[in-house]
Write a structure and sequence with these properties.
Strand content of chain B: under 5%
Radius of gyration of chain C: 21 Å
CATH architecture of the largest domain in chain C: 3-Layer(aba) Sandwich
Oligomer: heterotrimer
CATH topology of the largest domain in chain C: Rossmann fold
Chains: A alpha/beta (525), B mainly alpha (364), C alpha/beta (328)
CATH superfamily of the largest domain in chain C: Response regulator
Structural class of chain B: mainly alpha
Helix content of chain C: 40-55%
CATH class of the largest domain in chain C: Alpha Beta
Largest sheet of chain B: none
CATH topology of one domain in chain B: ABC transporter involved in vitamin B12 uptake, BtuC
Number of strands of chain C: 12
Order of helices and strands of chain B: HHHHHHHHHHHHHHH
Shape of chain B: globular
Number of helices of chain C: 11
Structural class of chain C: alpha/beta
Strand order of the largest sheet of chain C: 2-1-3-4-5-11
Distance between the termini of chain C: 54 Å
Radius of gyration of chain B: 21 Å
Strand content of chain C: 15-25%
Shape of chain C: globular
Largest interface: B-C, 54 and 45 residues
Largest sheet of chain C: 6 strands, parallel
Chain lengths: 525, 364, 328
């Protein structure tokens, strides 16, 4: 067992290391009845990359928000380079040398890189002198850390990876010595993620301290020096990365042994359920998001659609689910679907045997303010079992919900609890229970495990495989390559609205898919 | 986060808001040299101390139930119908056209037709902004406000230059026939041996309003339509995902809203004035916003809030009648209640929530 | 009489702060409010004058809504106030309903006729006063074009306009009279901006004297006339003071006198018609230090002569409301 107890580690650190870049002592924070952080202690040595890993809701973001001055801790102390530091707001955090790169970038889209970097850190009331000074500094920083960003490019013209680099530049421009990155790879292609890691390594070499918040075990293993695991608001362990392995970390995160691989029998393929020919989708802004794609899905098959988010997968799902307009031909069980007219709505699609677990369960899959039972009826309010004459049979819905919750192990199994009060995993189970139990011929499922804790991921994956084994067709859209690999019977990669290629998971690897996701065709494509 | 029990949210907070509003009003009354305690006694006695007062209070209450429900239906669909005024006016116009053109032998026959007509006119008036919002994306707040002005001008034209105008300088319509006069509380209660003021304007429409409250509840929480409206209101994305058509729901919700507003004319025009008077809506369409806000868009809450505003109106009249408190100050008092219960809700909510948290933590 | 009891009972439960006692007079102001610088305010002035001179008390209310008309009438009558005076023609319907229920109470309605044994209807011969200011306008005009701006387009205002036109033609047979109404809804009583625009429009047509019979809208008319350097004529109250030397005169309609007289007569106010004309100073034109510089002695002499002739019946001013036509 290479896991040191916190206490043990503190002791050794006190003896050997100089003052750590960051030290937190006894940090506690509650939101109402929820204790988000409980007596957290952590030391991050200067010039290291320190990972913080934990399930959704484990308290990682809260902790970092305290460090960046967004929240005030109820209790505890913060030491920066050994000095007690009070961080009441983000200005104080910046002054203390802390920079933060958020999951959702805080950039002004139609400003240039330079303007964004300077924004809020102008040296005087006049912009021009700040800008010219900044340009020099920016070029210097850019070269020093191989960030290669054009200071005059507009943000809206930059790729996501470049935008992230602008965020890093912003922090460096504010003379950050400590950089916090919150789930930085969520929006990146594998190649972009690799590039980011090289940048981070460069920063470490220059003596910067980096805190990387993530839930991806692979990244932790790849780049961090030490890793702290959080579970339910507490720091359960801090270990040297070299001395641990993914299974152990997963166990520390969840609190029990977790199967990271999905066990599944070979697919028994049946007839084609869905056939898509020359499908194009133009969005509300007139941009063509799906460009003439062709594919099919057969009964008993999981078709994984890989790709960096924003390459047309969402639009594809929407048009299949009935609430996006498209051109081309889609046949479901041999019947041609209406893609533009009065029968192109989600209700009709459900009747045609298509169920849909949407990518964004907060904005689409659930109504967070509604109670669980009302969410169970979402999309199915016209189910005869839910109605009695003109009125809805709310009691029947509640009973049905209770049963579904039991079968899908939703906790707490209380149909009267508002959806927002369930954890991400349990929310997703509510959605899955609703859609899978309809016994659809085709299940569309987008990002099934986004924001879902590892324990629930295992369960959800099992349910998806079980449905496939009943001979149903499944289209799985995910930005998590691991997930695509472990679930799919066939993988299609989308880039810029095109399907770049289809692969058998056994015959390909992450590298090849990564290239396809970046729009590069490989030989044999 | 459910930091407070439901009763605190629904009862305690409005009550604290009210107490603060009354306290501030008391200060205002005291500042102009009148006795605030006497003022509250005057208001209570004037609004509830006699069947006459009750009759006026319930008359205003009826108006506010209709407009409050109207605002609430739209709010449940996340639409802000600020056009209650115009829809009320059109309801009145439709009602008047009906009652002046058709000879009804008895009010009981006229009433259902009048209800349908005024609701249809109100709904029709709401349809245009709803259609524009649903199909063309124009902002419903802007269009409904504009439609208030159009309605007012239309009514002005009808009452000044058309055949429905009563001769003379007052912009009002011809009187309705005696046969369609609605029974007021006196007429309703006399057979039961209960004596009620003969002249108070509260009439049978009050019961229509109460029925609308019940209907509102049933439709909103026990039918597919109501469920779809609430789904759309809480999350447009989820509603579309569920197969709810935003266009349809926007139009339907707004038309129900306009119809409810239009029904107010049954009370004010058919029940009280027995003719159409320009400006008979008297801001009730706007008061409806406060009523819905205070009633948390729930019919029971709206009923209570409407009674409260009915009390404020009738009690306010009594203040100006008997205490010489100028009507501007009566409006100040009414505005304080709206401000405290509506706009400044969070001012009270936050500390109370904190208090509950404190206690809960103490209990744990 | 159960209603009486109910009301009196209600009143008794209310601890009354006002020092009013039974048989005090009461006045009900219309929706415009008692400080409308015009009709209601004039009524208020009369009530206050009575209070000052007699030391008596009176009850009052400014209406907030139409539903309150009947309510206020019943409340005051039930409370024993006598007489109950209401300012404005909008009370007709309510009063018709209420008056028979309180046969012992005297009601006074201004600007409207309600036929009941206990109602006094006070009407003004606005056409007579308008005739005189029409003469004044034509005589002081240099362009020979005079303007009239009415408020809401109702017969009452046409009566002003018709009298005004007759007077202008009488003084100068070649005079041109331009007329505009502000609108057809009650909003026309309170739209000074539009009043100003109409004034400018009339100036561009050559008018150099404008008469505003438009309530609050008139304030905009008088202001614009003063700004543009032409003369204006006020209405209802004496508005000469508003722009000294630039308001030719004001067609006064002594609503204050009507209220004052009613209050003074008390319970003994005589029911029936009470016509306020030139003969009893119910209407007239204002002469004071503010318009001494613009209203010439010659003109005043001519107006006095015409006034006497009208009182004597030698000049008959056509009343628009008698047949809804104007001979001009």
């Amino acid at each position: 067992m290479s896991v040191e107890t916190q206490k043990g580690r503190q002791d050794t650190a006190a003896l050997t290391a100089p003052a750590p870049a960051i030290e937190l002592r006894g940090i506690s924070k509650s939101f109402g009845p929820v204790q988000a952080n409980k007596d957290i202690a952590i030391k991050v040595a200067k010039g290291t990359i320190h990972g913080i890993i934990g399930e959704n809701g484990a308290g990682k973001s809260t902790l970092m928000s305290i460090l960046y001055g967004f929240y005030k801790a109820d209790k505890g102390e913060i030491l920066i380079n050994g000095d007690h530091t009070d961080i009441p707001d983000s200005q104080a955090a910046i002054a203390a040398g802390i920079g933060m790169v958020f999951q959702h970038f805080k950039l002004v889209e139609n400003f240039t890189v330079l303007e964004n970097v300077v924004l809020g850190a102008e040296s005087g009331p006049m912009l021009r002198p700040s800008l010219s000074k900044a340009r020099k500094l920016l070029t210097q920083l850019s070269d020093e850390y191989e960030l290669s960003v054009d200071p005059d490019a507009k943000i809206e013209d930059l790729s996501v990876g470049h935008q992230q680099r602008v965020e890093i530049l912003k922090a460096l421009y504010r003379q950050a010595d400590i950089l916090i990155l919150d789930e930085p790879t969520g929006v990146l292609t594998p190649a972009e993620a690799d590039h980011l890691f090289r940048i981070l390594e460069g920063l470490r070499a220059q003596g910067k301290t980096i805190i990387l918040i993530t839930h991806k075990l692979r990244e932790i293993m790849e780049i961090t020096d030490t890793v702290s695991v959080m579970r339910r608001g507490q720091m359960t362990a801090t270990v040297k990365t070299a001395e641990t392995n993914p299974e152990q970390l997963a166990e520390l995160m969840v609190g029990r042994k977790v199967l990271l691989q999905v066990d599944k029998a070979p697919a028994k393929l049946g007839d084609p359920i869905l056939e898509v020919e020359n499908l194009s989708v133009v969005d509300g802004d007139g941009v063509e998001r799906v460009k003439g794609i062709n594919f099919n899905v057969r009964a008993g098959e999981i078709l994984g659609i890989a790709g960096v988010s924003g390459n047309g997968q969402s639009e594809l799902l929407e048009v299949l689910a009935g609430y996006g307009k498209g051109t081309g031909t889609i046949r479901m069980n041999g019947d041609t679907l209406d893609l533009t007219g009065t029968k192109s709505d989600a209700k009709t699609r459900r009747k045609q045997g298509i169920a849909h677990v949407p990518e964004d369960r907060h904005a689409e899959g659930l109504i967070l303010d509604f109670e669980a039972w009302e969410n169970t009826a979402l999309g199915y309010i016209d189910d005869p079992a839910y109605n009695r004459g003109l009125l809805m049979d709310n009691a029947a819905i509640r009973k049905d919900t209770e049963e579904k919750m039991e079968r899908f192990d939703v906790r707490p199994p209380n149909p009267r609890l508002a959806a927002k009060n369930f954890s991400g995993g349990n929310q997703q189970k509510i959605v899955l229970a609703r859609e899978i139990e309809r016994n659809p011929d085709l299940l569309l499922i987008g990002q099934p495990t986004r924001g879902v804790d590892i324990g629930a991921i295992e369960f959800i994956h099992k349910q998806i495989v079980a449905l496939r084994d009943q001979g149903k067709a499944i289209i799985l859209v995910s930005v998590e390559l691991e997930e695509i690999f472990s679930l799919s019977d066939r993988i299609a990669v989308m880039f810029d609205g095109h399907i770049m290629g289809e692969r058998n998971p056994a015959d390909t690897d992450e590298k090849e898919l990564g290239l396809l996701m970046a729009g590069m065709t490989t030989e044999g494509a | 986060m459910d930091t407070m029990p439901k009763w605190a949210d629904i009862v305690l907070i409005p009550l604290i808001n009210l107490l603060i509003a009354f306290f501030l009003s008391g200060l205002v009354i005291w500042a102009i040299g009148k006795d605030p305690f006497e003022a509250i006694r005057t208001m209570v006695a004037g609004a509830f101390g006699s069947t006459d007062g009750v009759g006026y209070t319930l008359y205003y209450t009826t108006n506010f139930i209709f407009t409050g429900l109207a605002v609430a239906v739209a709010s449940r669909a996340a639409l802000f119908n600020i056009g209650g005024e115009g829809q009320v006016m059109l309801g009145g116009l439709g009602l008047t056209l009906l009652l002046l053109t058709v000879d009804f032998p008895h009010w009981a026959i006229a009433l259902p037709v009048a209800v349908i007509t005024s609701a249809a006119f109100g709904a029709g008036w709401a349809f245009v902004p709803a259609y524009l919002a649903a199909k063309r994306g124009s902002h419903i707040v802007v269009t409904t406000i504009m439609f208030n002005f159009i309605a007012f001008s239309l009514l002005g034209y009808m009452l000044v230059s058309s055949w429905i105008k009563k001769p003379g300088g007052v912009p009002e319509s011809l009187d309705f026939a005696e046969t369609v006069h609605l029974p007021n509380f006196h007429d309703i209660l006399a057979p039961l041996g209960i004596e009620f003021s003969k002249h108070a304007p509260a009439n049978i429409s009050f019961f229509i309003a109460v029925a609308c409250c019940v209907l509102f509840f049933v439709v909103m929480w026990h039918t597919q339509l109501g469920t779809a409206i609430r789904q759309f209101g809480k999350s447009e994305g989820a509603a579309i995902y569920a197969g709810v058509s935003p266009v349809k729901i926007t139009i339907i919700a707004m038309m129900i809203s306009g119809g409810l507003a239009g029904l107010m004319a049954v009370n004010a025009t058919m029940g009280e004035a027995e003719r159409l008077i320009l400006g008979f809506s008297e801001g009730a369409g706007f008061i409806g916003i406060a009523v819905a806000l205070m009633g948390r868009n729930h019919p029971f809450g709206i009923f209570l809030a409407a009674v409260l505003f009915g009390f404020l109106y009738q009690g306010g009249s009594e203040l100006s009648l008997w205490m010489g408190i100028p009507r501007e100050l009566v409006i100040v008092i009414q505005a304080l209640v709206i401000l405290l219960t509506g706009a400044l809700d969070n001012m009270v909510r936050m500390p109370v929530e904190r208090l509950f948290l404190h206690f809960r933590k103490g209990a744990n | 009489m159960s209603l009486m009891r109910t009301l009196l009972g209600a009143a008794a439960t209310v601890t009354l702060g006002a020092t009013a006692t039974l048989a005090d007079p009461a006045i009900i102001f219309d929706l415009g409010g008692k400080f409308d610088k015009s009709f209601n305010e004039s009524a208020y002035t009369g009530a206050e004058r009575w209070k000052e001179e007699t030391g008596g008390n009176y009850l009052e209310i400014e209406l907030q809504s139409d539903a309150q008309r009947e309510q206020a009438l019943r409340a005051f009558a039930g409370r024993g106030a006598n007489p109950v005076v209401m300012a404005g023609f909008s009370f007709a319907s309510a009063l018709t309903e209420v008056a028979p229920d309180y046969p012992d109470t005297k009601f006074v309605i201004i600007d409207m006729v309600v036929d009941a044994p206990n109602v006094t209807s006070v009407v003004f011969n606005e056409h007579e006063g308008s005739y005189l200011v029409g003469m004044a306008a034509a005589m002081e005009s240099e362009t020979g074009t005079v303007g009239f701006i009415g408020g809401m387009d109702i017969p009452l205002i046409s009566r002003f306009a018709c009298g005004y036109a007759q007077g202008a033609k009488a003084a100068n047979a070649d005079a041109t009279v331009v007329q505009n109404m502000t609108g057809s809804t009650p909003a026309a009583w309170n739209d000074p901006v539009k009043g100003g625009e109409l004034t400018k429009a009339q100036i561009s047509q050559g008018a150099d004297v404008v008469f505003a019979a438009a309530g609050g809208t008139g304030i905009g008319v008088l202001q614009t006339a003063a700004d543009e350097g032409i003369l204006s004529i006020g209405v209802d109250s004496n508005q000469n003071f508003m722009h000294p030397g630039q308001v030719l005169t004001s067609m006064t309609k002594r609503v204050d006198n009507a209220v004052y007289n009613a209050f003074s007569a008390g319970e003994d106010v005589a029911p029936g018609f009470n016509v306020m004309g030139l003969n009893n100073d119910g209407v007239g034109y204002a002469v004071d230090e503010f318009n001494a510089s613009v209203l010439s002695a010659d003109t005043i002499a001519a107006l006095e002569e015409a006034k006497a002739a009208i009182i004597a019946g030698d000049i008959a001013v056509h009343d628009f409301m008698s047949d809804s036509t104007c001979p001009m």
